[in-house]
Amino acid sequence: MSNLAATESRSSDATDLSKGADAKLEYQPGLPGIIEDSDLQGDDVDEAAAALRGQSLDYTEQEESRVVSKIDWRMMPIMAITCGLQFVDKSAVSNAATFGLQSDLHLHGQNYSWAVSVFYFSYLGATWPSTYLLQRFHPGKVIGIACVLWGVCILAMLGVTNFGGLIACRFLLGVFEAPLSPGFMMITTRWYTQKEQPFRFGLWTLLNGWLPIPALVMFYGLGHAGGPLQPWRHIFLVLGLVTVLMGVIVFFFIADSPANAPFLNDRERAIAVERIARCQTGIKNTQWKREQFIEALADPRVWLVVATLFLSQSGGAVTTNFIGIIIKGFGYNQLRSLLLQTPAFAIQGFICLIITGLVSFTKTFRNLKQPLLSIAACCVIAGTGVVYSTTPTAQNRQLLLGMMYMIALNNCSFTTIMSVIGVNFAGATKKSTVSAMTFVAYCVSNIVVPQAFRGTEAPTYHSGILTVMCFQIALVICYWASWALMTLENKRRDKLQARHPHPDGEKGVDSAMQKEDVLQGLKDLTDRENMTFRYSP
Fold first, then answer.
1. pTM, whole model, 2 decimals?
2. Model pLDDT for residues 245-279, shown as the tens digit of each residue
3. InterPro entries per the record (predicted)?
4. How far is CA 224 from the centre of its chain?
5. Which long-range contacts (CB under 8 A, 24 or more apart) does 28-36 make?
6. In this structure, what DSSP letter does residue 25 have?
């Protein structure tokens, strides 16, 4: 953590900040480093800037740690459970397929693949409206309402009797799940510094890998349940009820921004806002700016990051939608194939924590996010190569199972790419536009790739596995190109600017410089416009 301790020598007129986190500053205009009303004027000033009025920019490391801890305990558990639940909900169709969904609904040919893809068609259509709503309104409220509605869609699966009903439920599920990931990405960038964000992205996506493990054990038990409902319908009943409850919790407990967080006092809000302002990425601005929108579309760095997300989702198509069918094809029964999926999700969670921890807590790896991901992509290439070239037999099925777990390493890429997006683009409209572009790419990839998994090739899906392997090779190239472009731009800016604030938010050498840096970070400038901004690839 940056050295944020206040200097020992202070003006006798300044308020003593050693009284603890609950101390409030008396507004004394004209003191060095004090934010005044005149500093907060202008249409381009971030809405969160008001929390700094009359506050000093000096605070102790202990104060900051206390604030970050309160934010973590309030936000991270709710975000992690909701994100993990979203993954379980959207992939439940894969688990239901192992319990006879396809035969019960009379699916044939590409029907199942289309049931997978239609989710992403609607997700794609809802991406831009969702991004607008998240920027314009309270993201916690938007996500909470959406969560309740997608829980209702899960419950509606209880009444599905044919392909048409399945398509309708999956379509609506995609619409209502669309705000969650871009919304949580927006929340993370509002609350955490560039250095802190990768690990927080790792925390709230951690249950993408770990929540499916108890869920799969629960599904195993439901598979033995009797009663009038088929076993796969029990899955949707339980998931739907839990999701609706979680939506209510998100609605009432996720705060909008550090500037108005009800669980922080005035002093803590000011510290929370000031930390992010130093990173030069902004917090909240509801104005839509055409020039920032155009800049996002014209920025090659944006397109390379979009390409990495598009290509990386190919591996997710395997582990999210087809892993159960493929493992069953190795010669395992329905229930055993369900349980054998759990190591894949455990591996995903551990690798995600390792990579995000490395780039958050070690200077060596902080700007090596994408090179680290290229190693994971190479593992996926090796795994798909073996699965593609090997015919399953009783003797080699354990080897093939191990290769499927290797392919699961791909799932750590989503978390880290989200952190790359979150820390490397500034300006409210530009960030929202980049977020929308990346989730459009996410949807298109998840529409296209499942179609390569042809029903006539089940359970080996040779065409689909080959497609994933080719996508991953292209992904490695894009990772390195994106990393090189951002690194070179950082070096160019270093040469042009003798003094530049560290992107992790280190303080300047005096109060006037601190104040200038903070106000600069609250002017809703883009990463191109703000030459003090540094990329973290």
1. 0.77
2. 999 999 999 998 888 889 998 888 888 888 877 76
3. MFS, MFS_trans_sf
4. 35
5. 28/54, 31/56, 32/510, 32/511, 32/512, 32/515, 33/57, 33/58, 33/511, 33/512, 33/514, 33/515, 34/515, 35/515, 35/518, 35/519
6. -
